[in-house]
Amino acid sequence: MTISFGNQSTSLGLTRYLNDVSKKLNKSLERLSTGLKINKASDGAAQLMLSESMTSQIRGYEIASSNAQEGLSMLETADSALQQISQHLQDIRDIAVAASNGTTTATQFSAYQADLQAKLAAIDSIGSNTKYGTNVLLDGSLSGGAALNIQIGPNSGDTLDIKTAFTDNKSSSGLSISQNTLSTNANATTLLGQVDTAIATLNSHLGTIGGFENRLTDQINYLSIAKTNVAAAQSTIRDTDVAAETATVTRLQILQQAGAYALAQANIQPQIALRLLPG
Predict the structure, then answer these.
(1) Mean pLDDT, the chain, as a whole number?
(2) 169 neighbors 127 (Cβ within 8 angstroms)
(3) Do 29 and 249 form a contact (C-beta atoms < 8 A)?
(4) In whole angstroms, what is the distance from residue 38 CA to residue 24 CA?
(5) Are 10 and 267 in contact (CB under 8 A)?
(6) Residue span of the structural domain in which 214 resides
Protein backbone atom coordinates (compact mmCIF):
# COMPACT_ATOMS: atom_id res chain seq x y z
CA MET A 1 0.00 0.00 0.00
CA THR A 2 1.29 3.38 -1.00
CA ILE A 3 1.45 5.84 1.87
CA SER A 4 1.29 9.45 0.80
CA PHE A 5 -0.34 12.78 1.60
CA GLY A 6 -0.63 14.13 -1.93
CA ASN A 7 -3.55 12.50 -3.80
CA GLN A 8 -6.16 11.26 -1.33
CA SER A 9 -8.25 9.34 -3.88
CA THR A 10 -9.33 6.79 -1.29
CA SER A 11 -10.56 9.50 1.08
CA LEU A 12 -12.40 11.31 -1.72
CA GLY A 13 -14.04 8.09 -2.90
CA LEU A 14 -15.13 7.22 0.60
CA THR A 15 -16.49 10.75 1.11
CA ARG A 16 -18.56 10.45 -2.07
CA TYR A 17 -19.84 7.04 -1.03
CA LEU A 18 -20.66 8.26 2.48
CA ASN A 19 -22.57 11.26 1.08
CA ASP A 20 -24.55 8.94 -1.19
CA VAL A 21 -25.47 6.68 1.72
CA SER A 22 -26.47 9.71 3.81
CA LYS A 23 -28.78 10.96 1.06
CA LYS A 24 -30.45 7.57 0.78
CA LEU A 25 -30.81 7.38 4.55
CA ASN A 26 -32.41 10.84 4.69
CA LYS A 27 -34.82 9.77 1.94
CA SER A 28 -35.80 6.64 3.87
CA LEU A 29 -36.28 8.64 7.07
CA GLU A 30 -38.46 11.12 5.17
CA ARG A 31 -40.63 8.27 3.88
CA LEU A 32 -41.03 6.88 7.38
CA SER A 33 -41.83 10.27 8.92
CA THR A 34 -44.43 11.21 6.29
CA GLY A 35 -45.81 7.74 5.68
CA LEU A 36 -45.44 8.36 1.94
CA LYS A 37 -42.89 6.88 -0.40
CA ILE A 38 -43.67 9.58 -2.99
CA ASN A 39 -43.37 13.01 -1.39
CA LYS A 40 -42.50 15.08 -4.46
CA ALA A 41 -42.31 14.74 -8.21
CA SER A 42 -38.66 13.70 -8.16
CA ASP A 43 -39.63 10.59 -6.21
CA GLY A 44 -41.68 9.40 -9.19
CA ALA A 45 -43.45 11.86 -11.45
CA ALA A 46 -45.70 9.30 -13.13
CA GLN A 47 -46.71 7.71 -9.83
CA LEU A 48 -47.36 11.11 -8.27
CA MET A 49 -49.56 12.15 -11.18
CA LEU A 50 -51.53 8.90 -10.94
CA SER A 51 -51.86 9.26 -7.18
CA GLU A 52 -53.15 12.84 -7.45
CA SER A 53 -55.67 11.69 -10.05
CA MET A 54 -56.84 9.04 -7.62
CA THR A 55 -57.14 11.67 -4.89
CA SER A 56 -59.52 13.61 -7.13
CA GLN A 57 -61.56 10.46 -7.69
CA ILE A 58 -61.68 9.61 -3.98
CA ARG A 59 -62.82 13.11 -3.02
CA GLY A 60 -65.32 13.02 -5.87
CA TYR A 61 -66.75 9.75 -4.54
CA GLU A 62 -67.09 11.27 -1.07
CA ILE A 63 -68.94 14.37 -2.30
CA ALA A 64 -71.09 12.35 -4.71
CA SER A 65 -72.09 10.07 -1.84
CA SER A 66 -73.13 13.13 0.17
CA ASN A 67 -75.09 14.42 -2.83
CA ALA A 68 -76.86 11.09 -3.28
CA GLN A 69 -77.74 11.06 0.42
CA GLU A 70 -79.23 14.55 0.05
CA GLY A 71 -81.31 13.39 -2.89
CA LEU A 72 -82.40 10.30 -0.96
CA SER A 73 -83.47 12.43 2.01
CA MET A 74 -85.48 14.64 -0.33
CA LEU A 75 -87.23 11.59 -1.80
CA GLU A 76 -87.88 10.12 1.65
CA THR A 77 -89.51 13.40 2.70
CA ALA A 78 -91.89 13.17 -0.27
CA ASP A 79 -92.44 9.45 0.38
CA SER A 80 -93.49 10.07 3.97
CA ALA A 81 -95.89 12.85 2.94
CA LEU A 82 -97.47 10.67 0.24
CA GLN A 83 -98.08 7.97 2.84
CA GLN A 84 -100.09 10.51 4.82
CA ILE A 85 -102.06 11.51 1.71
CA SER A 86 -102.70 7.82 1.01
CA GLN A 87 -104.24 7.44 4.45
CA HIS A 88 -106.51 10.43 3.85
CA LEU A 89 -107.59 8.96 0.50
CA GLN A 90 -108.47 5.69 2.20
CA ASP A 91 -110.54 7.65 4.70
CA ILE A 92 -112.31 9.47 1.87
CA ARG A 93 -113.04 6.14 0.22
CA ASP A 94 -114.61 4.89 3.46
CA ILE A 95 -116.75 8.03 3.52
CA ALA A 96 -117.81 7.51 -0.10
CA VAL A 97 -118.73 3.85 0.51
CA ALA A 98 -120.76 4.73 3.60
CA ALA A 99 -122.53 7.63 1.87
CA SER A 100 -123.43 5.42 -1.11
CA ASN A 101 -125.87 3.44 1.04
CA GLY A 102 -129.52 4.14 0.25
CA THR A 103 -130.41 4.48 3.96
CA THR A 104 -128.15 7.50 4.45
CA THR A 105 -130.04 10.39 6.03
CA ALA A 106 -129.62 14.13 5.46
CA THR A 107 -127.94 14.44 8.86
CA GLN A 108 -125.47 11.73 7.92
CA PHE A 109 -124.78 13.37 4.56
CA SER A 110 -124.00 16.61 6.43
CA ALA A 111 -121.53 14.80 8.68
CA TYR A 112 -119.94 13.01 5.72
CA GLN A 113 -119.64 16.35 3.89
CA ALA A 114 -117.81 17.96 6.81
CA ASP A 115 -115.48 14.97 7.09
CA LEU A 116 -114.83 15.00 3.34
CA GLN A 117 -113.94 18.70 3.35
CA ALA A 118 -111.52 18.17 6.25
CA LYS A 119 -109.79 15.29 4.45
CA LEU A 120 -109.50 17.20 1.18
CA ALA A 121 -108.10 20.25 3.03
CA ALA A 122 -105.55 18.01 4.78
CA ILE A 123 -104.43 16.56 1.41
CA ASP A 124 -104.07 20.02 -0.10
CA SER A 125 -102.16 21.26 2.95
CA ILE A 126 -99.68 18.39 2.64
CA GLY A 127 -99.35 19.03 -1.10
CA SER A 128 -98.67 22.74 -0.57
CA ASN A 129 -96.45 22.59 2.51
CA THR A 130 -94.24 19.52 2.10
CA LYS A 131 -90.82 21.07 1.53
CA TYR A 132 -87.17 20.14 1.39
CA GLY A 133 -85.20 23.31 1.89
CA THR A 134 -87.07 25.86 -0.19
CA ASN A 135 -88.43 23.30 -2.69
CA VAL A 136 -92.12 22.43 -2.48
CA LEU A 137 -92.24 18.73 -3.31
CA LEU A 138 -95.84 17.75 -3.94
CA ASP A 139 -97.50 20.65 -5.75
CA GLY A 140 -96.04 19.87 -9.20
CA SER A 141 -93.76 22.93 -9.29
CA LEU A 142 -90.62 20.78 -9.54
CA SER A 143 -91.81 18.19 -12.06
CA GLY A 144 -92.72 20.83 -14.61
CA GLY A 145 -89.50 22.82 -14.35
CA ALA A 146 -85.87 22.28 -15.24
CA ALA A 147 -84.07 19.02 -14.54
CA LEU A 148 -83.44 18.29 -10.87
CA ASN A 149 -80.08 16.59 -11.29
CA ILE A 150 -78.30 14.83 -8.45
CA GLN A 151 -74.54 14.55 -9.02
CA ILE A 152 -74.14 10.89 -8.12
CA GLY A 153 -70.57 10.33 -9.34
CA PRO A 154 -67.16 12.03 -9.46
CA ASN A 155 -67.22 12.80 -13.18
CA SER A 156 -69.13 15.03 -15.55
CA GLY A 157 -72.33 13.38 -16.67
CA ASP A 158 -72.70 11.24 -13.54
CA THR A 159 -76.14 12.67 -12.81
CA LEU A 160 -79.64 11.43 -12.05
CA ASP A 161 -82.68 13.60 -12.80
CA ILE A 162 -85.29 12.98 -10.08
CA LYS A 163 -87.79 15.72 -10.96
CA THR A 164 -90.45 13.23 -12.10
CA ALA A 165 -90.71 11.98 -8.50
CA PHE A 166 -92.24 15.27 -7.39
CA THR A 167 -95.60 15.38 -9.16
CA ASP A 168 -98.75 17.30 -8.20
CA ASN A 169 -100.58 15.43 -5.43
CA LYS A 170 -103.16 18.03 -4.44
CA SER A 171 -106.72 16.75 -4.33
CA SER A 172 -108.32 18.43 -7.36
CA SER A 173 -105.36 19.33 -9.60
CA GLY A 174 -103.12 16.30 -9.20
CA LEU A 175 -105.43 13.58 -7.93
CA SER A 176 -108.50 14.74 -9.91
CA ILE A 177 -111.03 14.61 -7.09
CA SER A 178 -113.63 17.11 -8.28
CA GLN A 179 -116.61 15.69 -6.36
CA ASN A 180 -116.30 17.71 -3.17
CA THR A 181 -119.96 17.69 -2.09
CA LEU A 182 -121.94 14.84 -0.57
CA SER A 183 -125.69 15.29 -0.48
CA THR A 184 -126.92 12.30 -2.49
CA ASN A 185 -126.05 8.68 -3.15
CA ALA A 186 -125.10 9.66 -6.70
CA ASN A 187 -122.56 12.15 -5.32
CA ALA A 188 -121.08 9.37 -3.21
CA THR A 189 -120.89 6.97 -6.16
CA THR A 190 -119.09 9.59 -8.25
CA LEU A 191 -116.71 10.32 -5.39
CA LEU A 192 -115.99 6.62 -4.97
CA GLY A 193 -114.91 6.28 -8.59
CA GLN A 194 -112.73 9.39 -8.39
CA VAL A 195 -111.03 8.38 -5.15
CA ASP A 196 -110.22 4.92 -6.56
CA THR A 197 -108.53 6.64 -9.50
CA ALA A 198 -106.72 8.98 -7.10
CA ILE A 199 -105.43 6.04 -5.06
CA ALA A 200 -104.10 4.38 -8.22
CA THR A 201 -102.45 7.66 -9.25
CA LEU A 202 -100.87 8.08 -5.83
CA ASN A 203 -99.60 4.50 -5.87
CA SER A 204 -97.95 5.20 -9.23
CA HIS A 205 -96.27 8.27 -7.74
CA LEU A 206 -95.06 6.18 -4.80
CA GLY A 207 -93.68 3.62 -7.23
CA THR A 208 -91.70 6.32 -9.03
CA ILE A 209 -90.31 7.65 -5.76
CA GLY A 210 -89.47 4.15 -4.57
CA GLY A 211 -87.57 3.45 -7.77
CA PHE A 212 -85.45 6.56 -7.33
CA GLU A 213 -84.87 5.74 -3.65
CA ASN A 214 -83.59 2.29 -4.58
CA ARG A 215 -81.40 3.77 -7.31
CA LEU A 216 -79.78 6.25 -4.94
CA THR A 217 -79.36 3.66 -2.18
CA ASP A 218 -77.57 1.36 -4.62
CA GLN A 219 -75.43 4.28 -5.83
CA ILE A 220 -74.41 5.19 -2.29
CA ASN A 221 -73.32 1.58 -1.71
CA TYR A 222 -71.40 1.57 -5.00
CA LEU A 223 -69.65 4.86 -4.18
CA SER A 224 -68.50 3.47 -0.85
CA ILE A 225 -67.05 0.36 -2.50
CA ALA A 226 -65.45 2.36 -5.33
CA LYS A 227 -63.86 4.79 -2.88
CA THR A 228 -62.42 1.91 -0.84
CA ASN A 229 -60.97 0.23 -3.94
CA VAL A 230 -59.37 3.40 -5.31
CA ALA A 231 -57.99 4.30 -1.87
CA ALA A 232 -56.43 0.84 -1.62
CA ALA A 233 -54.87 1.22 -5.08
CA GLN A 234 -53.55 4.66 -4.18
CA SER A 235 -52.05 3.29 -0.96
CA THR A 236 -50.14 0.68 -2.96
CA ILE A 237 -48.72 3.39 -5.20
CA ARG A 238 -47.90 6.09 -2.67
CA ASP A 239 -47.84 4.85 0.93
CA THR A 240 -44.64 3.74 2.61
CA ASP A 241 -44.08 0.04 3.27
CA VAL A 242 -43.02 0.62 6.87
CA ALA A 243 -41.50 -2.83 7.38
CA ALA A 244 -39.41 -2.66 4.21
CA GLU A 245 -38.37 0.96 4.79
CA THR A 246 -37.38 0.24 8.40
CA ALA A 247 -35.12 -2.57 7.17
CA THR A 248 -33.64 -0.14 4.61
CA VAL A 249 -32.97 2.46 7.30
CA THR A 250 -31.20 -0.12 9.46
CA ARG A 251 -29.03 -1.25 6.54
CA LEU A 252 -28.14 2.32 5.55
CA GLN A 253 -27.30 3.28 9.14
CA ILE A 254 -24.87 0.35 9.31
CA LEU A 255 -23.32 1.37 5.98
CA GLN A 256 -23.10 4.98 7.15
CA GLN A 257 -21.30 3.99 10.34
CA ALA A 258 -18.96 1.66 8.43
CA GLY A 259 -18.28 4.39 5.86
CA ALA A 260 -17.53 6.92 8.57
CA TYR A 261 -15.09 4.49 10.19
CA ALA A 262 -13.42 3.74 6.83
CA LEU A 263 -13.11 7.46 6.07
CA ALA A 264 -11.56 8.07 9.45
CA GLN A 265 -9.02 5.32 8.79
CA ALA A 266 -8.26 6.73 5.33
CA ASN A 267 -7.61 10.14 6.82
CA ILE A 268 -4.98 8.64 9.14
CA GLN A 269 -2.69 7.84 6.20
CA PRO A 270 -1.29 11.40 5.81
CA GLN A 271 -0.46 11.38 9.52
CA ILE A 272 1.44 8.08 9.09
CA ALA A 273 3.31 9.54 6.14
CA LEU A 274 4.18 12.58 8.25
CA ARG A 275 5.63 10.40 11.00
CA LEU A 276 7.93 8.73 8.45
CA LEU A 277 9.64 12.03 7.67
CA PRO A 278 12.81 12.77 9.65
CA GLY A 279 12.13 15.10 12.50
Answers:
(1) 87
(2) yes
(3) yes
(4) 14
(5) no
(6) 75-225
